[in-house]
């Protein structure tokens, strides 16, 4: 195991802003997929999507468990973009900020691999990461499931006490903290759960607060 600091970064709404364009597109695609494959109307499809998201941390997991959905087909169909480059919203200082962080950097995302690689290429930061762990590489076990964390830690031979997880999801940080990681929440929430070590408005602020970690 390595003793150096290792940064684990979520992707959507952490390294870029997925709220304006990408998340609405994915949510619509998921709703339409559920409509087609479960034979329900839009209202029921939306309810199912949100219910599984709240229960499992990913709509995919609920569909696989309860409807025998093919996970790879679902991911491919719901992450298709005709103009992804125009939909990615990123801070202009992102690349510079990441380059200033000492230690290894790894992507840890619930998104599929093809989409993850495409976004990293658009952001021009793919080469800054030692590896990328997407939900298909995690055997379709999403965060915040402990199995997803342990799979990454074992494969990368990491001690969780040397890891810093940077995330927009407090639920994912809760699992990370239980495993011994340092936790950084990218959010404007005024109140912090006890398992969050530090909150940032933007990931580009990381180099300025390393001393607090």
What would you note in describing this structure?
This protein has about 210 residues and is α/β, with parallel strands linked by helices. The protein folds into 2 domains: about 5-15 and about 90-210, Rossmann fold; about 20-80, Orthogonal Bundle (DNA polymerase, domain 1), CATH 1.10.150. The protein is about 45% helix and about 10% strand. It is built from 10 helices and 6 strands; from the N terminus they run E-H-H-H-H-H-H-E-H-E-H-E-H-E-E-H. It has helices spanning about 20-40, 40-55, 60-65, 70-80, 85, 95-100, 115-125, 145-155, 170-180, 205-210, and strands spanning about 5-10, 105-110, 130-135, 165, 180-185, 200. The protein has a 6-stranded parallel β-sheet with strand order 3-2-1-4-5-6, sandwiched between helices. Helix 9 links the parallel strand 4 and strand 5 (about 180-185). Helix 1 (about 20-40) crosses helix 2 (about 40-55) and helix 2 (about 40-55) crosses helix 3. The chain is globular, with a radius of gyration of 17 Å.
Quick structural gist:
This protein is α/β, with parallel strands linked by helices. Helix content is 44%, strand content 12%. Helix 1 (22-38) packs across helix 2 (42-56) and helix 2 (42-56) crosses helix 3 (59-67).
